[in-house]
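JOB MANIFEST
job_type = single_chain_structure
chain_count = 1
residues = 165
[input]
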Amino acid sequence: MMPSATCDGGATDHISELSDDLLLHVLSFLSHNARDVVRTSALSTRWRSLWTRAPVLRLMNKAGGTDADDVRFNDFVHSVLGRRAYCGADVDMLDLHAWLWPGKSRAGVWLRRAMRHTVGSLEFELYTPPLTVKRMTMPEYLADRLRPRLDLPTTTRVTKMFSRA
């Protein structure tokens, strides 16, 4: 246990005394939104990198946002997956849903990083815009042939997977 920290007003900070495992368990309750998990890094220096080891990570973009929101979200996803890959921490469950197609190269990086560090469940869903030619929507059978394809890396670690791109 770490020594008790004293807050302003003389109160003891008991949260700082908790083990990393228990703090990670607390973070798992925030797992409905990865941004909330990352925001905990502002609580104290002790929490600064703790989020990079959270066991559950949900990266879900809300439908109906602006293009700028979607771009910021994709940059956020890229940053989070990069930091997780750098620290080497495994994830029990990773859900990734993005409304803006990040491009085949970036999507491939995301998928490789996700599969490398996911031990349990992986849900990977990227939406592609409707394909149009001269403002006419293509028939679904033709559009399906032209949609981007991703190669799935091999893994023996993921026990459950759902993927749609």
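[summary]
The chain has five helices and eight strands.
Residues 130 and 158 are 30 Å apart (CA to CA).
exit_status = 0
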